[in-house]
């Protein structure tokens, strides 16, 4: 009988808690004690006795190890769901692998990547309702109000978090509170991600838009930005590429420009776009529409297309989230980009710097009817805490770490291009706190229905904002 | 022979029991549950409070509900009759072929029908692609410039209807072909002897005799197209969902995006009623015409 077959039933029996520790060790023992022995004997030829002695010793050592491990707790399995599939997904997988290696025999993360947006959040909600959700998952902090209202999230107690050194002191206050509803923590921040301006260094140099420090210059102010776009027009198909259809980038750009004028999206009394904020919202939309109208930015372009326009060199500037940094970095490293790229914080078009921002965080689904053992809870908390403490690797994906000790570390402060745009952590305007807002929410839909068409000249900016206001107000009731 | 009637009845019941049970558990019970749900304020998952007719009152006031009713009706108008007529026309052409030629051509027309909707979406999104889609050649010729078909409001529904007809026509052709084959050749021979023109043969022989199949195809199409969801949902991705919202899509968005299970159920009941009323009406109407 082959040794592998011998192990199987043992593993099966323990399948509740995942592959068992001794199962793994058995496989290792089999490999060390079996194969190499034959190989060595074959290669070396003489002195087989010595080899047998060594092998015997190894077996003895491993059996001892096996016995001692057998008495210890079985390995905890943490089922993990995320929605990270792009360049940052690759980095997350590396982090998970590192975690599993460091916690071999104690905790094992079993990751699954699902589709971003509505599919992910629908699946989380329905699976949690029947107790089939994961043990831990990534979650947008902007979505926490909706998540809590729909009963998809389990509360995380302050003591539990303090037990793994996480608390209000280790995160920026606004970031930490974004994971709370009425003072109760439901999600732990992991990063801050925002909108940045990617640029093609060669094209900006050609147009004379690079300063002495090698960074773009003369982009601040709506009129200056327009003038810069005009200068860039000759050098490429489009001066600026950005997603101009559906939700996503249009929302992020709109909310940044709106925030730069201190616009109020949702007032305390539940009014969307209170009277004095309407002109500000209209101004933001008009600015966005002016890029498309003049042919400086592509009309009706979807997300992927907008990225491709920049990476193929057809656009000199590109407005998108920090999460595309790995895409550029990887292409550049492979020598497939064909130009030098950089990224800076979104220019100031209006009164003061401000940029839309959201956070990825970790949350525990409210798995109905499924009791969480203390061991499982400890393992999940360890995952959340370890990920935050090791989030420097995540910063490689363009994000800004939420965990203050990492964010303030020397390594992060010198990391490029993050350091160039890290100012946006201080000027971030987070999504409105409402059950109608957040990723894949009615607000996102409203952007696709009103703001994007206005960008493409299908709706007048004034009408677009008024209709959007009426629509959201209607849905809020 | 003495028969045990009671025993026979019992055995008969025993035999239909599996079906009745399956039907009751899998069809009847969920439908009743849906109706019940529509009178509550339930979220997507879990029970809710009984709120009477509130959902229905809200529905009649809901601008988006009426938009989706209108869009669904528009889509039905764009697909049901054209799809049937095109199916009949192609079936009549195919029926003139013989042997392997007929099989080959039939297979070619039927091929799209076996594709899953996601593949159909990929194919046509690619065909109409603004930058490199092959359909942009005729579109540029007509409109003078490349046209984003699925991002242009007035073109959206007709384009989706066109793709739907391309996709589902094969099945109608098959139904019509079997209908055409069941018409006796004697009748055609007699007509030929009387020197009837081709048009007369179609009007006086083929059309009336194929009518039962036409009525069936029309009814199947009507029910199918009232439940339109997949194509609209896929093609609108990354665009404006509201102006082209159809009923099932609205149910989906209320239930899964807005967590309003009770309200979504109320819309589902409305769609259920619409489907029943229209299909029964249509079938009766068509049958009456056929018997005339």
- Say what the CATH topology of the largest domain in chain A is: D-Maltodextrin-Binding Protein, domain 2
Low-confidence stretches of chain B: none
Q: Count of helices of chain A?
A: 23
* Shape verdict of chain A: globular
What labels would you give this structure?
heterodimer, A: 477 residues, alpha/beta, D-Maltodextrin-Binding Protein, domain 2, 3 domains, 23 helices, 14 strands, disordered N terminus, B: 292 residues, mainly alpha, MetI-like fold, 0% strand
Short description:
The complex is a heterodimer of chains A (477) and B (292). Chain A is 49% helix and 14% strand. With 477 residues, chain A is an alpha/beta fold.
Q: Can you describe this structure?
A:
The complex is a heterodimer of chains A (477) and B (292). Chain A is of the alpha/beta class. Chain A contains 23 helices and 14 strands. Chain A has three domains: 3-71, no CATH class; 79-190 and 359-413, 3-Layer(aba) Sandwich (D-Maltodextrin-Binding Protein, domain 2), CATH 3.40.190; 195-356 and 441-476, Periplasmic binding protein-like II (D-Maltodextrin-Binding Protein, domain 2). In chain A, 49% of the residues lie in helices and 14% in strands. In chain A, the strands form three sheets. In chain A, strands 7, 8, 9, 10, 11, 13 and 14 form a seven-stranded mixed sheet that branches. In chain A, strands 2-1-3-12-6 form a five-stranded mixed sheet. In chain A, α3 runs antiparallel to α4, α13 (278-293) crosses α23 and α22 packs antiparallel against α23 (461-476). Chain B has 292 residues and is mostly helical. Chain B has a single domain, classed as MetI-like (MetI-like fold, Orthogonal Bundle). Helices cover 75% and strands 0% of the residues of chain B. Chain B is built from twelve helices and no strands. In chain B, α9 (198-226) runs antiparallel to α12 (261-291). The interface between A and B is medium-sized, with 28 and 21 residues.
């Amino acid at each position: 009988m082959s040794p592998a077959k011998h192990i199987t039933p043992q593993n099966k029996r323990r399948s509740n808690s995942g592959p068992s520790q001794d199962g793994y060790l058995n496989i290792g023992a089999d490999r060390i004690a079996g194969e190499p022995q034959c190989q060595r004997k074959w290669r070396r030829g003489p002195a087989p006795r010595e080899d047998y002695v060594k092998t015997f010793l190894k077996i003895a050592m491993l059996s001892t190890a096996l016995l001692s491990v057998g008495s210890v707790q079985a390995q905890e399995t943490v089922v993990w769901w995320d929605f990270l599939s792009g360049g940052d997904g690759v980095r997350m997988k590396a982090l998970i692998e590192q975690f599993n290696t460091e916690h071999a025999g104690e905790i094992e993360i079993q990751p699954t990547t699902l589709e971003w947006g509505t599919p992910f959040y629908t699946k989380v909600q329905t699976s949690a309702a029947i107790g089939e959700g994961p043990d831990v998952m990534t979650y947008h902090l902007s979505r926490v109000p909706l998540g809590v209202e729909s009963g998809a999230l389990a509360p995380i107690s302050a003591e539990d978090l303090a037990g793994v050194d996480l608390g209000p002191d280790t995160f920026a206050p606004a970031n930490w509170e974004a994971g709370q509803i009425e003072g109760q923590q439901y999600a732990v921040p992991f990063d801050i991600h925002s909108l940045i301006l990617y640029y093609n260094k060669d094209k900006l140099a050609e147009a004379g838009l690079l300063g002495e420090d090698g960074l773009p210059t003369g982009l601040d102010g709506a009129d200056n930005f327009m003038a810069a776009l005009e200068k860039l027009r000759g050098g490429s198909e489009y001066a600026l590429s950005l997603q101009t259809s559906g939700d996503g980038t249009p929302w992020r750009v709109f909310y940044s420009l709106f925030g730069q004028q201190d616009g109020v999206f949702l007032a305390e009394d539940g009014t969307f776009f209170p009277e004095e904020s309407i002109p500000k919202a209209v101004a933001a939309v008009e600015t966005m529409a002016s890029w498309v109208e003049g042919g400086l930015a592509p009309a009706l372009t979807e997300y992927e297309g907008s990225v491709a326009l920049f990476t193929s060199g057809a656009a000199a500037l590109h407005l998108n989230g920090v999460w595309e940094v790995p895409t550029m970095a990887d292409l550049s490293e492979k020598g497939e980009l064909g130009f030098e790229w950089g990224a800076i914080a979104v220019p100031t078009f209006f009164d003061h710097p401000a940029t839309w921002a959201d956070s990825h965080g970790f949350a525990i689904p409210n798995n109905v009817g499924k009791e969480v053992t203390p061991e499982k809870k400890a393992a999940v908390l360890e995952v959340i805490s370890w990920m935050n403490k090791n989030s420097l690797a995540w910063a490689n994906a363009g994000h800004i770490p939420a965990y203050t000790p990492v964010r303030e570390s020397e390594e992060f402060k010198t990391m490029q291009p993050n350091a160039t745009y890290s100012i946006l952590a201080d000027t971030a305007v987070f999504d409105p706190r409402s059950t109608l807002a957040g990723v894949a929410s009615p607000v996102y839909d409203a952007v696709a229905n009103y703001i994007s068409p206005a960008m493409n000249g299908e709706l007048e900016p004034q009408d677009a904002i008024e209709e959007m206001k009426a629509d959201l107000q209607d849905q809020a009731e | 022979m003495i028969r045990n009637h009671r025993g026979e009845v019992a055995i008969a019941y025993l035999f239909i029991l599996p079906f009745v049970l399956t039907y009751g558990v899998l069809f009847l019970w969920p439908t009743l549950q849906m109706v019940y749900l529509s009178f509550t304020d339930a979220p997507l998952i879990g029970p809710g409070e009984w709120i009477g007719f509130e959902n229905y009152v809200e529905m009649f006031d809901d601008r988006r509900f009426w938009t989706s009713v209108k869009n669904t009706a528009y889509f039905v108008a764009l697909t049901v009759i054209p799809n049937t007529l095109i199916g009949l026309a192609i079936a009549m052409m195919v029926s003139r072929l013989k042997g392997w030629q007929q099989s080959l051509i039939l297979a070619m027309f039927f091929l799209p029908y076996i594709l899953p909707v996601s593949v159909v979406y990929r194919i046509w999104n690619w065909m109409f692609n603004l930058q490199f889609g092959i359909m942009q050649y005729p579109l540029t010729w007509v409109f003078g410039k490349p046209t984003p078909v699925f991002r242009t409001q007035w073109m959206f529904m007709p384009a989706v209807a066109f793709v739907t007809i391309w996709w589902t026509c094969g099945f109608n052709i098959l139904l019509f072909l079997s209908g055409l084959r069941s018409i006796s050749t004697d009748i055609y021979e007699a007509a030929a002897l009387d020197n009837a023109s081709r048009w007369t043969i179609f009007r006086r022989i083929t059309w009336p005799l194929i009518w039962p199949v036409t009525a069936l195809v029309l009814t199947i199409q009507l029910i199918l197209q009232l439940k339109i969801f997949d194509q609209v949902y896929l093609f609108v991705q990354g665009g404006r969902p509201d102006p082209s919202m159809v009923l099932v899509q609205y149910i989906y968005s209320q239930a899964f995006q807005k967590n309003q299970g009770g309200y979504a159920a109320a819309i589902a009941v409305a769609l259920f009623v619409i489907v029943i009323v229209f299909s029964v009406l249509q079938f009766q109407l068509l049958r009456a015409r056929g018997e005339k």
